[in-house]
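Try this one yourself first.
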């Protein structure tokens, strides 16, 4: 018998820049001209059918003018496309077009595009670099930063994927001008979540400036885009792989994801998270971590943002309880929740542990009592 030891200790530097600004396509072209992707000159621009005409085609033309080679690959817009089969279809189209592992992927769009294109980049040719060009508030606030990539399956959202960091993220606030108001509101759920879990001053800012933000006022939008990144990164830099602290970013997502799937994606991601945040505050009140008055401030801010805080009538609440068990925080078959402590903080149940088991009957009581 022989035993060989394969020494593969690695020091990895996955650091990258997030650039927040307006009309960043020119900056992207400039960065590429100055070696952002080293010697790689072939790009696969991945986008969806709505963003294609608005932003992806002009960006594609700009990169071709620069002398880069590449083409645009588009898929039908919407969460229903975030599947293994869309990923496989895009991969097949890239292979047919002669793409090899010397290319790079450029994701132009919202969270669906960045999750799908990032996952594809992480596995195409065993991994090619990618860039995120975020065009929604939700992608800016959350999806485009942090390196989580995934697709949905019929049973649950985001369970099949990779941690795979982009080479650079562009957050182009001008793109928010073409977002339908419902998408702006959806993006604000993750913004409210960040304020709830990390920063009471930011929460107060949102209370005072919600109308301006919803009207896409540039200063307010630039501020919230930056603050979202700072808060998310404060967490991700300390726990990239979600072994402890990063779980705090799941605030509101246990119920949120279950509601999202059970709605058959009638609810947008942020709308589902908003309902999940409302459920989480009710649980936090029950456990004594937040006062009813502060819980009411959270639901009122969500409503100010144009978000739902009630479980839709078409969702069966007992089914909802069952669906909670598909959450990735479940351990040994038990439900685990991140809970808010006051405004701007979360509960640390023991050193480094930010999610706690809560019995099914307590959770059921809360969900049945919710409006
Ligand atoms: N990876 C992560 O850490 C993370 C975090 C939060 C959410 N997510 C994922 O993000 C997704 C939701 O993101 P989303 O809300 O950006 O969804 P999305 O990408 O589906 O975009 C929403 C809609 O807006 C359209 N759109 C995009 N940009 C536009 C623009 N500038 N103008 C007009 N229309 C535009 C899209 O075509 C789509 O129809 C979910 O799949 C969720 O699971 C991932």
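Now uncover the answer:
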């Amino acid at each position: 018998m022989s035993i060989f030891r394969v020494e593969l200790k690695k020091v990895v530097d996955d650091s990258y820049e997030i650039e927040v600004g307006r009309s960043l396509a020119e900056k992207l072209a400039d960065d590429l001209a100055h070696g952002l992707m080293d010697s790689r000159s072939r790009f696969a621009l991945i986008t969806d059918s709505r963003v294609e005409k608005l932003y992806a085609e002009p960006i594609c033309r700009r990169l071709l003018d620069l002398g880069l080679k590449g083409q645009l690959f588009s898929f039908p817009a919407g969460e229903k496309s975030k599947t293994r089969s869309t990923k496989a279809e895009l991969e097949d189209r890239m292979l047919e077009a002669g793409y090899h592992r010397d290319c790079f992927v450029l994701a132009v769009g919202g969270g669906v595009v960045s999750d799908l294109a990032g996952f594809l980049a992480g596995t195409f040719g065993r991994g090619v670099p990618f860039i995120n060009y975020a065009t929604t508030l939700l992608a800016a606030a959350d999806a485009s930063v942090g390196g989580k990539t995934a697709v949905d399956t019929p049973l649950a959202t985001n369970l099949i994927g990779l941690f795979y960091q982009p080479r650079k993220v562009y957050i182009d606030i001008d793109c928010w001008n073409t977002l339908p108001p419902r998408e702006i509101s959806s993006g604000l759920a993750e913004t409210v979540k960040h304020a709830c879990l990390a920063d009471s001053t930011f929460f107060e800012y949102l209370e005072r400036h919600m109308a301006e933000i919803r009207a896409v006022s540039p200063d307010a939008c630039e501020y919230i885009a930056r603050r979202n990144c700072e808060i998310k990164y404060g967490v991700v830099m300390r726990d990239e792989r979600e072994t402890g602290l990063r779980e705090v970013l799941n605030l509101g997502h246990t119920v949120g994801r279950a509601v999202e799937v059970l709605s058959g994606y009638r609810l947008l991601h942020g709308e589902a998270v908003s309902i999940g945040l409302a459920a989480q505050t009710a649980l936090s009140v029950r456990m004594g971590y937040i006062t009813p008055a502060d819980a009411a401030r959270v639901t009122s801010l969500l409503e100010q943002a144009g978000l739902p805080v009630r479980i839709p009538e078409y969702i069966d609440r007992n089914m909802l309880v069952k669906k909670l068990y598909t959450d990735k925080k479940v351990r040994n078959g038990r439900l685990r929740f991140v809970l808010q402590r006051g405004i701007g903080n979360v509960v640390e149940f023991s050193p480094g542990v930010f999610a706690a088991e809560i019995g099914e009957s307590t959770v059921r009581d809360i969900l049945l009592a919710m409006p």
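Discussion: The two ends are 66 Å apart (CA to CA). The mean pLDDT is 95.
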